[in-house]
Amino acid sequence: MHRSFVRLAATTTGKSNNQLRQKLIEKIIRVDHAGELGADRIYAGQMAVMKGSSIASIIQHMWDEEKEHLDTMERLCAKHEVPPTVFAPIFSVAAYALGVGTALMGKEGAMACTVAVEELIGKHYNDQIKELIDDDPTAHADLLKTLTRLRDEEMEHHETGVVNDGPKAPLFDALKFAIQTGCKGAIWAAERV
Ligand SMILES: [Fe+2]
Ligand SMILES: [Fe+2]
């Protein structure tokens, strides 16, 4: 949110800048926690199917990074007293099913899922980084550092999906559209409750 808008909103609603800043931080951490939980469950679902396959170590590597991301978000939730989204249990099940379903399509299907999800999440992290810089880069220095690191790792996952033939999956464009639409719905929900 732009600083002048924050000030205007603050005077019109009677809320202090601190309260608005806390709301912004809560929104960002809640949705990112949901996203990292989803990513952890997707790769868990994929590994349940692809264990022992030629790409198991590639998926395991991304899964290990997602576990660390989830850990990071859990620590941030605790630090800023942000409860997880009420949709967390549903997201967990849906994400696991997405992981299993795409892995059952084979290597290309699994990697297509990574391409679709990581592209969207990378963009979403970028939007949040811009929002925090617009608000106050100094006040958000630590959070910005974390989000930038996670964004970079998600972009590496995206690249892994591309070089491992994700875009060669059957009906790749339709699959990517469907997955990204589902993820956008989840983001919309998690940013609110
Ligand atoms: Fe992640
Ligand atoms: Fe990722």
From TrEMBL:
Its main location: mitochondrion. It is a peripheral membrane protein. It holds the Pfam family COQ7. It is found in: Mitochondrion inner membrane. InterPro entries: Ferritin-like (IPR012347), Ferritin-like_SF (IPR009078), Ubq_synth_Coq7 (IPR011566). Fe cation 2 binds at residues 66, 118, 154, 157. GO terms for cellular component: extrinsic component of mitochondrial inner membrane; nucleus. Binds 2 iron ions per subunit. PANTHER family: 5-DEMETHOXYUBIQUINONE HYDROXYLASE, MITOCHONDRIAL (PTHR11237:SF4), COENZYME Q10 BIOSYNTHESIS PROTEIN 7 (PTHR11237). Belongs to the COQ7 family. This is 5-demethoxyubiquinone hydroxylase, mitochondrial. It comes from Panagrellus redivivus.
